[in-house]
Amino acid sequence: MTQKVLIIEDDAALRASIAQTLELEDLEPIQTCSFTQARRSIRSNFKGVVLSDIKMPDHTGFDVLRFAQTRDPDLPVVLLTGFSDVPTAMRAIKEGAYDYLEKPCDPDRLTDTLRRALVHRDLVLQNRAYQQELDTRQAEAQSGTLAEQLERHEKQIIENALFEANGKVSQAAESLGIPRNTLYDRMTRLCLVAKSYRGADQQED
Amino acid sequence: MTQKVLIIEDDAALRASIAQTLELEDLEPIQTCSFTQARRSIRSNFKGVVLSDIKMPDHTGFDVLRFAQTRDPDLPVVLLTGFSDVPTAMRAIKEGAYDYLEKPCDPDRLTDTLRRALVHRDLVLQNRAYQQELDTRQAEAQSGTLAEQLERHEKQIIENALFEANGKVSQAAESLGIPRNTLYDRMTRLCLVAKSYRGADQQED
DNA sequence: AAAAAATATCCGAAATTTCGGACAAAAATC
DNA sequence: GATTTTTGTCCGAAATTTCGGATATTTTTT
pLDDT tens digits, residue range B99-110? Predict the structure, then answer.
């Protein structure tokens, strides 16, 4: 579970207070005091979320938001607005902020909101991982000549059978429904060595 | 994108008002006035989220929440609490509610919150779909004898090549790196007919 | 409608794969 | 440490697969 929260807040006191609140809730605050400082952490593979103040001396929370969206549209950005600044808050959501919080904000609301954002982030990253897994499988299964493709698959099947049988060739052969000798033939052809699949805990070559 | 919101609210006026707000935001409200009525919609494959009042004549929002969790722990439930009832709200989150809203609630906050819940739901369902996809592939790839497994795979490879070549056997054979006649041999063995892969738009048997 | 190209099937020789048996070496059991 | 089992390798005959050539049929082009 990702727990990182990249805090962007120029007011040192508030920043520290937020960080402390998060730590008490087992989150991992990363404190920065400006967009410039935070910039390099904002990447598409960042395993966490962003919490940024809106009004800051050199940049606004919207700058952070826009930048984050160029790096990864699915990176949640939570913005801290001034008290009762509803129009700004609405604009923030419209522009793609994950949520907003009114300053000063209740610690519980803060952590609840961030937790939701973190879960969102987790789900997105996990989804991407699954998708990539499927894509690469698809891709690598469909390259090369028929013989090559079949050989790759055969190798996988045999390796799997050997693994399941803990490296015992006879047993693997039986599970694959072929005579022991035939499996040896194929293993030689595929440059497979039974030893490698023996002893799940410790084996040296 | 799932857009269904199962509303559980005994106050008809408020319920209608919420439903209208949601419709204006392109969400799909499903109006119910009691837990009993909503109960059968709450299932692990429900493509939406739940929005329930906490105080109701016969049941509470917590009943809804607990029930939802037994059906699907990842089905977001948003609870409507009375004005400034912070303790109850906190308890709701602790017990697994996705979020809570204070009555009367701002329409924007309502839709924002529900949208987040819906995205969450979407991601969870998508994740499950991916996982299942991977599992079934794994399972069906590892059953039967070696010959059977290889034959299944060979069939897939050839079918794919034929599809890519729009049913032209010679072309498919070339892409697979084998002579045309050999491909015919294998197709006969696997009971494959080239015609089936011709004419991406319309073909009758 | 004729000509050209592609599809689909059959044949048979050459190449490859299968598989049982034999056997030495290694490992496990007694 | 002797015995039994298992492993890994080699051999050769039988079975299967490959693949080019021949050819009839269908489709496409001209």
Answer: 999 988 899 999
Alpha helix positions (H), chain B: 12-24, 35-38, 61-71, 86-94, 107-141, 146-164, 169-176, 180-189
Residue in A closest to B177 by C-alpha = A145
Which helix (DSSP H) or strand (DSSP E) does residue A52 occupy? strand A48-53
Which two structure tokens, joined as six digits, stand for B141?
A: 């790839």
Which residues of B fall below an 8 Å CB-CB distance to A?
A: 86, 90, 93, 98-99, 106, 108, 112, 116, 119-120, 123-124, 126-127, 130-131, 133-134, 137, 142, 144-150, 153-154, 157-158, 160-161, 176-178
Q: Per residue in B146-178, pLDDT tens? A: 889 999 999 989 998 888 888 898 899 999 999
**At a CB cut-off of 8 Å and minimum separation 6, what does A94 contact?**
none
Q: How many whole angstroms separate alpha carbon B154 and alpha carbon A59?
A: 59
Instruction: Name the pTM for this structure.
Output: 0.82
Give me the CA B188–C1' D24 separation in Å, rounded: 19
CB neighbourhood size of A60 (10 A)? 17
